[in-house]
Amino acid sequence: MVDVSVQPFEIELVTRTGITVRADVYLPAVKQGPYPVLLAASPYQKALRRLPAHWVFPFVEYGPMQMYLDEGYAYVIVDVPGSGRSEGIWDPVSRTEGEAIHDAIEYVAAQAWCDSNIGMIGQSYFSWSQWNAARTRPPHLKTIVPYDGSNDMYRDWLYHGGIPQHGLLGPWLLGSVMMQHQAEGHDVRGGQRHELLPNIMSNTLDNEWHRRRSPFWELDQVDIPVFSIGAWSKAGLHLRGNVMGFNRVRGPRQLLLIESYTFSDAQKTFDDEDFHRREILPWYDYHLKGRDTKVMERPAVRAFVNGAGEYRSSDRWPPPEMVPDTFYLSSQKAGVLRSLNDGSLARTPSDREADSTSWSYPDPEWMLGVTTIINGVPDHTARVITYTSAEFDEAREFTGHGVLILHGSSNQEDMDLIVKLQVLSPAKHGFIARKVTQGWLRASHRAEDPDLTQDMLPFHTHAKADPLIPGKIYELRVELLPMSFLVNPGERLRLEISNFDSLIADAPMTHWYGQKVGTDTYHHDAAHPSRLVLPHCPG
What we know:
By secondary structure, the chain is of the alpha+beta class. It contains 10 helices and 25 strands.
């Protein structure tokens, strides 16, 4: 929403580190204060609130401000340190930035127009700011509603499985932050914003630099009400954080995973007044105004089941009725599509003494990442490894976390696994594929954290790189992102494995290919039962 009925006024405060931070305040036109406050914080410059919520302005993620003003909420937009009109150094999602937001919350709470009840609001970076401020536990922060926002910056975004993500990093840093600052007349070196990229590149392991920028590690101390909302279309960027954050906080909490198919869908939904009136406004009214909206009577978890067209409710994530369902990788031909191997997903383990699939890279026919062009048509699977199931004879739902357990070897000292799972629906000319989950792992990062790992949810430490011995077979457990989908009768599952992305199908969440040249082998014989384990929810 571009226009609102009131003009903002600017406030400034000095943080505990002596930095001057500025914010814009929007008060309801009807003067009946003091008001509960919704506070949003980001480096996207409060001056840019004038722009519409549109995919060409992906950083416009405030929600329907006028609706909240009409409902008697004040709205405060904070430029985090080192951005917009605020002074200091930009240190994104760091604990220092969280403490600055904490100080802004407490300053606002003391103003005559605030009734001391403050909630936070916003999507993406604004959502990061909510997790980040909450971990510092401001006394007057009563609730957060992190919509579409991760909280473990290493695993959720920057280094998927230890593999550098760069498809979104450049456009985000340059297009949404640095160039927008330049367009507003700011020095491109201001706030040391240009230092972020070399800092990310200099910290390839999950070290202290990343831990300071990952609220996840302190969310177990957060006891205020949290309504975490994830969008399926943002699985490769934010969804994992919404789910993991929900499970880690210890106060009243709800999780909603919404129907969404593109990045733009997620932005449009957050700008939609009807969505807010149905889902988010009742939460704020209950926790900030004390109204009995019955919002806490909703199920703790609601997830849209892709392919079913409906939501599943549960009292926790993953659903308690979930049981592991295993599909075994096999070199037996599936005979349903063109790929490097056309392997199968079998319901029983192999009894063969030797069964494996080898491939070499870079593939000479790759054109747009792993995508090649055949008769003028992009083909995303012709030059990758695939394993496809038989047709399902009954509907089967999978909701929760999953894992690919792959026995792999390489003639190199490392190997990257980029994994996608798709449902294939029969069509007039072949199949229509829809991606339902994905995962990544760099083999040298295979070590897992014993305190956080679960059978269906490997949690890798990324604390050091442990090179492979060429030719040695290793068991590699690839975390699959949260999922909820239905396979209908006549549909199939297809597992794709490569060490590179499609620059069409996987954009913008693509990864740096690097200097990989070699041959990898995936073993799936009796002694090495490589398998896909999915969260089946009976009924």
